[in-house]
Each structure stands twice: as C-alpha cells, then as structure tokens.
C-alpha cells in the first residue's frame, strides 16, 4: 500500500498548499480520500492514471474537502468512462451532485454507487477482496468521518520445492487459503503450515480529517501502520481549536501515541502559520515518529 499526498491545506486558500486530497494505491487500484478544489490537476501533475480510481471517500461537506469532486466526476464523463465508481460520503452529498449535474444537463455515462456514511463507530463501509474501509467517527462542526483502510493479508506462498511432482492443481488454492488437504486417492495429508509461507502482512492507514481532540479514535486506529491527523493549530491556541472543533499538533500526537501507530503525518495547518517547524517540535513532545505531510510525496505504508 502506498499513499500519495495531493493536498494538505486548510480552508483558507494558500499559494503553496492545495486543499485536502490523498490517494491510496493497493495493487493496481486507487482509493481517493477527500477531493478538495483542483484535485484533478494534482492528479495530472503527479502522473496518476485516473482510470484506476475506483473508490472515492469524502470525509465531510466543508468545501476544502469536496469542492473538486464535481469537476473530477465531470472529467471522467468527458473522457468516456464506463466503469462504475464507488462513492462513500455523508448525507447530502448525493443531493448536491444531483443538483449540479441537473443544472449542467449532464448525465453520467458510468454508474455512481453511493454508500451513505452514517458516522457509526467502526462501521464497515466497503469490503473487497484486497481491502476494506471502515469509518472513524470524528467531532466537527458538521458530520465528519475519518477512514480506516486495511489492505488485507496476502495469500500464503506455496513452497513448490516441498511439493511432490504432479501435485494436484485443485489443492494449490486450498493450501494458499491456509487449509490442509487430503488426497482422496492416496489418503496423503498435505499441511498448509508445512508447505506454505505467510503472505504479505496486512497494512492499515488511519485517516483522521477535521476533528476536535477525540480519544475515541484510539481503539479504532489501534496499531495502524500510518496515521494522518489534522493539526490545524499549535497548542497555545488550544481554546480556539476546541471552539472551531479542530486539533492541535500536540493533541494529534497524543492520539497517535495512544493508538500505538507506527508513524504519524500531520497536515491541514491554519494559513496563519508560514512554517511547520513548530508543529513538528510540539508533536514530538508526545510522539517521536512524526512528519509533516508533503504534497507530491509518496509514502510506503509498511
């Protein structure tokens, strides 16, 4: 699993930062998480093959997290897309899109499979063969939901040198699933634990978008390989963070530490800050393995 950062800015426009947008790649499939204004241009700049985007997750209905969605979906249509897209989002999102498309007299050439995000704790929103997406309820001025994306453990690897010649082909898949098999003709038992090795381990990404300090995140994100958590303010503005239902860098670090994640990325800084150095210093008071999310950077989730 890899994460490409497309935008880490906050609500106020900034010359050097773009609104929120993150792209996860699992095998050859992309999951787009949030789609701020201009996201399709960020995708072009990063040479992303947009036809591989099959799932889009929108955390909440503040413009810096979804104003780019109508443009992206419209561009898919103009390019003749026929493959369906799964769209996960809050109540009201589909109505907004319907109004915009109706005003433009636009009919999509592809199916939009909408999954309503009810902001329920740990709800499985999408479960595919290679990954699943669960909700992380957050606290903000409007319904806001983070996402826990898990790349599932890979199939077990067959140790072919341990198998006899002419090993029955139908047994391979059972062994890869971790199941023992018995040859009905010879009655010989083949044990998965002896003939296979564990597949690639599961990997977990926790995306915590706009939210006040909310310790209830911890049990859901426990042990994630990578967490992205907003850090709009420094801790000297903790009262303002509470009032606007955002987090400080120190609070984000405390969530990461309690969640026992391997690595923390910060973003969504207020436009009042011209440097992120203080955010990193403040976060390291509680959690050492922290970085500022850099637009255009690709992170291996390990």
Structure characterization notes:
With 302 residues, this protein is α/β, with parallel strands linked by helices. It folds into 2 domains: 2-154 and 200-300, Ribonuclease Z/Hydroxyacylglutathione hydrolase-like (Metallo-beta-lactamase, Chain A, 4-Layer Sandwich), CATH 3.60.15; 162-196, no CATH class. 23% of the residues lie in helices and 27% in strands. The chain contains 9 helices and 18 strands. It has a 7-stranded mixed beta sheet with strand order 6-5-4-3-2-1-18. A 7-stranded mixed beta sheet has the order 7-8-9-14-15-16-17. Helix 8 packs parallel to helix 9. The model has no long low-confidence stretch (mean pLDDT 93).
Name the strands of the widest sheet in spatial order: 6-5-4-3-2-1-18
Number of helical segments with 4 or more residues: 9
Strand content: 25-35%
- Low-confidence spans: none
Please tell me the overall pLDDT.
93
How many domains in all?
2
